[in-house]
Design goal:
With 133 residues, the chain is an all-alpha fold. The chain has helices spanning 5-41, 51-84, 90-102, 104-116. Helix 1 (5-41) packs antiparallel against helix 2 (51-84), helix 2 (51-84) runs antiparallel to helix 3 (90-102) and helix 3 packs antiparallel against helix 4.
Length: 133
Protein backbone atom coordinates (compact mmCIF):
# COMPACT_ATOMS: atom_id res chain seq x y z
CA UNK A 1 0.00 0.00 0.00
CA UNK A 2 1.43 3.36 -1.01
CA UNK A 3 1.07 6.36 1.24
CA UNK A 4 1.88 9.97 0.50
CA UNK A 5 5.00 11.65 1.80
CA UNK A 6 3.07 13.92 4.19
CA UNK A 7 1.16 10.96 5.63
CA UNK A 8 4.38 8.99 6.11
CA UNK A 9 6.01 11.88 7.95
CA UNK A 10 2.93 12.49 10.11
CA UNK A 11 2.63 8.84 11.08
CA UNK A 12 6.36 8.71 11.80
CA UNK A 13 6.20 11.75 14.08
CA UNK A 14 3.14 10.38 15.92
CA UNK A 15 4.83 7.00 16.31
CA UNK A 16 7.94 8.68 17.74
CA UNK A 17 5.76 10.66 20.16
CA UNK A 18 4.03 7.44 21.21
CA UNK A 19 7.35 5.72 21.85
CA UNK A 20 8.85 8.68 23.75
CA UNK A 21 5.76 9.76 25.73
CA UNK A 22 6.40 7.28 28.58
CA UNK A 23 9.55 9.29 29.35
CA UNK A 24 7.29 12.27 30.02
CA UNK A 25 5.28 10.08 32.42
CA UNK A 26 8.43 9.39 34.44
CA UNK A 27 9.39 13.07 34.46
CA UNK A 28 5.95 14.17 35.69
CA UNK A 29 5.80 11.34 38.21
CA UNK A 30 9.19 12.12 39.75
CA UNK A 31 8.55 15.87 39.92
CA UNK A 32 5.13 15.27 41.45
CA UNK A 33 5.93 12.48 43.89
CA UNK A 34 9.63 13.13 44.46
CA UNK A 35 9.11 15.66 47.28
CA UNK A 36 6.71 13.23 48.98
CA UNK A 37 9.27 10.45 48.80
CA UNK A 38 12.03 12.69 50.16
CA UNK A 39 9.81 13.89 53.01
CA UNK A 40 8.84 10.30 53.86
CA UNK A 41 12.48 9.57 54.69
CA UNK A 42 12.39 12.20 57.45
CA UNK A 43 10.01 11.01 60.12
CA UNK A 44 9.15 14.43 61.59
CA UNK A 45 8.57 16.32 58.34
CA UNK A 46 5.19 16.64 56.71
CA UNK A 47 5.01 15.92 52.99
CA UNK A 48 5.01 19.15 50.97
CA UNK A 49 2.05 19.99 48.80
CA UNK A 50 3.02 22.85 46.55
CA UNK A 51 2.20 24.22 43.16
CA UNK A 52 4.01 21.37 41.40
CA UNK A 53 1.86 18.76 43.10
CA UNK A 54 -1.32 20.74 42.44
CA UNK A 55 -0.56 20.76 38.71
CA UNK A 56 1.23 17.41 38.57
CA UNK A 57 -1.83 15.24 39.09
CA UNK A 58 -3.94 16.88 36.36
CA UNK A 59 -0.92 16.92 34.03
CA UNK A 60 -0.35 13.22 34.68
CA UNK A 61 -4.03 12.51 33.93
CA UNK A 62 -3.86 14.57 30.71
CA UNK A 63 -0.73 12.70 29.59
CA UNK A 64 -2.44 9.36 30.18
CA UNK A 65 -5.48 10.46 28.15
CA UNK A 66 -3.25 11.74 25.32
CA UNK A 67 -1.29 8.48 25.36
CA UNK A 68 -4.48 6.39 25.06
CA UNK A 69 -5.97 8.49 22.25
CA UNK A 70 -2.68 8.36 20.39
CA UNK A 71 -2.39 4.59 20.90
CA UNK A 72 -5.87 3.80 19.58
CA UNK A 73 -5.51 6.16 16.64
CA UNK A 74 -2.18 4.64 15.66
CA UNK A 75 -3.48 1.09 16.08
CA UNK A 76 -6.41 1.85 13.78
CA UNK A 77 -4.08 3.31 11.14
CA UNK A 78 -1.48 0.56 11.39
CA UNK A 79 -4.03 -2.28 11.29
CA UNK A 80 -5.76 -0.71 8.28
CA UNK A 81 -2.39 -0.36 6.55
CA UNK A 82 -1.46 -3.92 7.48
CA UNK A 83 -4.70 -5.35 6.05
CA UNK A 84 -4.44 -3.39 2.82
CA UNK A 85 -0.72 -4.15 2.40
CA UNK A 86 -0.91 -7.36 0.37
CA UNK A 87 2.69 -7.07 -0.80
CA UNK A 88 4.09 -7.68 2.70
CA UNK A 89 5.08 -11.12 3.89
CA UNK A 90 2.22 -12.91 5.63
CA UNK A 91 4.51 -14.08 8.43
CA UNK A 92 5.78 -10.56 9.14
CA UNK A 93 2.27 -9.14 8.95
CA UNK A 94 0.91 -11.70 11.44
CA UNK A 95 3.82 -11.27 13.85
CA UNK A 96 3.60 -7.49 13.73
CA UNK A 97 -0.21 -7.51 14.10
CA UNK A 98 0.19 -9.53 17.30
CA UNK A 99 2.99 -7.17 18.33
CA UNK A 100 0.68 -4.16 17.89
CA UNK A 101 -1.44 -5.55 20.71
CA UNK A 102 1.20 -7.21 22.90
CA UNK A 103 4.20 -4.86 22.65
CA UNK A 104 3.28 -1.84 20.51
CA UNK A 105 6.25 0.28 21.61
CA UNK A 106 8.47 -2.07 19.58
CA UNK A 107 6.09 -3.33 16.87
CA UNK A 108 4.83 0.06 15.66
CA UNK A 109 8.29 1.48 14.86
CA UNK A 110 9.38 -1.81 13.27
CA UNK A 111 6.33 -1.86 10.97
CA UNK A 112 6.84 1.83 10.19
CA UNK A 113 10.48 1.29 9.24
CA UNK A 114 9.70 -1.82 7.18
CA UNK A 115 6.53 -0.95 5.29
CA UNK A 116 5.56 2.72 5.63
CA UNK A 117 8.77 4.78 5.50
CA UNK A 118 10.54 3.27 2.47
CA UNK A 119 9.16 3.70 -1.03
CA UNK A 120 9.86 -0.01 -1.61
CA UNK A 121 10.08 -2.37 1.40
CA UNK A 122 13.11 -4.67 1.63
CA UNK A 123 12.89 -7.81 -0.50
CA UNK A 124 13.01 -10.13 2.52
CA UNK A 125 9.91 -8.40 3.98
CA UNK A 126 7.81 -8.86 0.83
CA UNK A 127 5.44 -11.67 -0.07
CA UNK A 128 7.13 -14.32 -2.18
CA UNK A 129 5.44 -15.27 -5.41
CA UNK A 130 4.21 -18.88 -5.72
CA UNK A 131 6.54 -19.44 -8.66
CA UNK A 132 9.61 -18.74 -6.53
CA UNK A 133 8.81 -21.51 -4.03
Amino acid sequence: MKTGRAARITVGVLTAVYVLLPLAFFAVWFTTFGPFLLAAGRGDAEPPFGVLQAFGFPLFFALICLFNFLYYGLIIYYLAHLVKNRSGSEVWRIVLAAGFLIFPVLALPVYYLLYILPEQPPAWALQRSPEAS
